[in-house]
């Protein structure tokens, strides 16, 4: 059920949503502040050309601004967008973390001398789960984008600034965890000397296990933070549907480059397996290496289109 609101109430809501004063709105429309005040109090009605300007300025239809409750439409759209993007951020970060966690579990099993084939199988289970997450979320995200080609700029400056503070914490925590992983990787023999001298264990595999465990946590946090940062950039989201925009071209190029890199990684892995009969850690490592290459390529392309 759509509740009908007056044009004045809708106009007042849209103006306050975008942090625009009556004077600023009047200046943009080339009218007096008193005219805007009369519109909002419903004692006067704007001319058709001014209504068209208002519709374009606030990115809503004439029907919405004149007949409907814009605030309820705004809340509904924002809720849908927030729920989708938050789920997308969490699941993609989870998928990335699962692949790295799979490497950690595989290295741990090898370190305690579990059958290597069993360790490889466990890793592939993690990969299969992660790939399934990527496929499902990728299809859901593409479907959402097709249904929501343009999104209103929901977020106030206060909301963006509040997230930016959290974003700084996310980045700091993620980087610190990765640095801790590197520190443990270089000094684990002094941290766990009893394990190091125990002949039943493979210390190199155990070191790798703990290293990948910390890396999985740190990288997952960084991926989640990056996707949440992207969520707040409504302009980029809208521009990404415009085939003439830099954002669209950038997205297409990044997708192509990353697809080529991961296909190359798969080919190398299959060659290592079938030709050299090496299906273990050395050949599997090609995936995170090329994944890092994909991240670097994305950064370079992003800088190119700034």
Key words describing this protein structure:
14 helices; 306 residues; mainly alpha; 79% helix
List the helices and strands and how they pair.
Blueprint: H1 7-17, H2 22-29, H3 33-40, H4 48-57, H5 62-67, H6 70-111, H7 116-147, H8 157-191, H9 193-196, H10 203-231, H11 234-239, H12 246-274, H13 281-284, H14 286-304
Helix pairs in contact: 2-3, 6-7, 6-10, 8-10, 12-14
Structure description:
By secondary structure, the protein is an all-alpha fold. 79% of the residues lie in helices and 0% in strands. It contains 14 helices and no strands. The longest helix is centred in the N-terminal third of the chain and has 42 residues.
Determine the mean pLDDT: 79
Distance between the termini: 43 Å
Oligomeric status: single chain
Query: Can you write the helix and strand succession as a string?
Result: HHHHHHHHHHHHHH
Helix percent band: over 70%
Q: How many strands?
A: 0
Separate helix tally: 14
Largest sheet: number of strands, sense, barrel closure: none
Strand content: under 5%
Principal-axes geometry comes out as elongated
Low-confidence stretches: none
* Helix-and-strand structural type: mainly alpha
Please tell me how large the radius of gyration is. 26 Å
Summed up:
This protein has 306 residues and is mainly alpha-helical. It has helices at residues 7-17, 22-29, 33-40, 48-57, 62-67, 70-111, 116-147, 157-191, 193-196, 203-231, 234-239, 246-274, 281-284, 286-304.
């Amino acid at each position: 059920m759509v509740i009908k609101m007056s044009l004045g109430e809708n106009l007042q809501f849209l103006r306050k949503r975008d942090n625009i004063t009556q004077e600023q709105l009047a200046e943009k429309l080339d009218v007096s502040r008193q005219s805007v005040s009369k519109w909002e109090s419903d004692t006067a009605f704007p001319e058709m050309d001014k209504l068209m300007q208002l519709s374009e300025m606030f990115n809503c239809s004439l029907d919405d601004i004149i007949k409907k409750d814009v605030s309820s439409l705004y809340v509904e759209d924002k809720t849908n967008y927030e729920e989708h993007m938050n789920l997308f951020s969490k699941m993609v970060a989870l998928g990335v973390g699962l692949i790295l966690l799979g490497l950690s579990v595989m290295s741990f099993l090898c370190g305690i001398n579990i059958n290597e084939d069993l360790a490889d199988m466990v890793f592939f289970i993690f990969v299969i789960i992660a790939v399934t997450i990527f496929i499902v979320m990728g299809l859901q995200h593409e479907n959402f984008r097709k249904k929501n080609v343009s999104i209103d700029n929901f977020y106030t400056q206060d909301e963006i600034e509040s997230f930016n503070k959290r974003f700084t914490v996310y980045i700091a925590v993620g980087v610190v965890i990765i640095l801790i992983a590197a520190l443990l990787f270089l000094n684990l023999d002094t941290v766990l000397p009893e394990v190091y001298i125990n002949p039943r264990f493979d210390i190199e595999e155990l070191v790798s296990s703990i290293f990948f465990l910390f890396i999985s946590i740190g990288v997952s946090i960084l991926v989640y933070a990056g996707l949440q940062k992207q969520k707040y950039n409504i302009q980029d989201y809208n521009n990404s549907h415009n085939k003439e925009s830099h954002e669209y071209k950038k997205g297409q190029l990044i997708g192509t480059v990353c697809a080529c890199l991961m296909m190359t990684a798969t080919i190398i892995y299959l060659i290592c397996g079938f030709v050299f009969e090496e299906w273990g850690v050395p050949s599997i490592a090609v995936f995170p290496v090329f994944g890092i290459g994909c991240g670097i390529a994305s950064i370079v392309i992003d800088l190119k289109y700034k």
